[in-house]
Amino acid sequence: MAAGDGLVFISYARADEDLARSLRDRLSQAGVSSFLDTGEIRAGDEWRRVVTSALDRASLVVVVCTGRSVASVEVTFEWAYAMALGVPVVPVLYEPGLTLPGTLASLDRLSFVDPAHRPWDRLIVRAVEAGWKDRISLGRLRRLGVERIFTGRTNIARQGVRDLLDRVLPQTELLVVGRSLESWAREFQAIQDCVTHKGVRARFALVDPALAPDGWMVPADYAHLDVGAAVEKFRKISSAPGSDGSFEVYFLPNAPTFSFVHLHDAAGAYGFLEFGASLSFAERFAIELRSGDGDGLLRSVFKVHDAMLHTRPPVISSTGPSRGEQ
Fold this sequence. Notes:
The protein is an alpha/beta fold and 326 residues long.
C-alpha cells in the first residue's frame, strides 16, 4: 500500500498493548500502515486531538476486543467516532463468549481467539481494500477543508451578505464571484462601510451586462436577473481618502456554474461555494470551506478565480479610473 492510500487505526485498551503491537507488526509486514497511540503520541501532546486526527485519516479501524477494551471509555470513543465518520470498523475478538456493545455487535467481526488459527489473511485483505477503495468519508472531506454541506434556499440564505461582511477581518481581502451578485448589490452601502472603515480590499466578478441574457442564462423558476441594475449599485461604492480599502468589479465573458465567496475571519480563511445557479433555490446546495491539509479545496478554488481576474482589467475601481475608461 502506497503512502497516503490508507491508514489502519488500532483501537485497544492499555492492558492489551501486546495484542495491539502484534497486530501492528503483522500489518506492517504486509505493507499496511497503521496507527498505534503508544508510538505516535509524544509527551505533551493532547491525547484526544492526536487520536481524532489519526481517525480522520484512517481508512479502517481495527478494535482489539477483550473484556477490558469493551469496558474502556477511550476505546468506545474511538470506534464510535470512526463509525460517525463513515470509516469501516472491524472488531477482532480475542476472548471466547465476549459480548460486544450493540452497535459494535452488529458488525462483521474476526475471531482471533485461537492463536493457531487467526485469520490474518482476511484482516490484511480488509485493510488493503479499505485503503484503496474510492470512498469519500466525512473524515476525508474534513481533510480537504469541507466544513459543512447543506441544501435548500432557507439554509443557503442564512449565509446572508451582511453576516459575511461582519465576519471579514480588517485589512484583509474579500473575493466574490457569481452570475449577477444581485443580493450583494442590494447591500452596496454595507460593502462601502467594509471598504472604508475596515480597509478591506474587495473584488467582485459577475457576468458582463453587455451579454444578451439568452446567451448565458439557463431558464429557471425564479425571476429574470438584471445584471445591469447590480452594476449601477456597485458604481456607488468608493473608498474614503486615506483608507487602505479598495473596491473593484470585473466582468466575466460567461456565467459561472457556481458562486464563490472567499474571506478571512477570526478562524482564518473561509469559503462559501454555492452550486446550481441555474436550478431552483430548493435544488441548490452549498459547501462551507476552511483550509484543509496542504491548503485543501479552498486554496485550489481561490487560486482558479484569482488567476482568472488577473487576466482582465477591472471595469470599476475605487482606487482610480477603471482601465476601460482610460
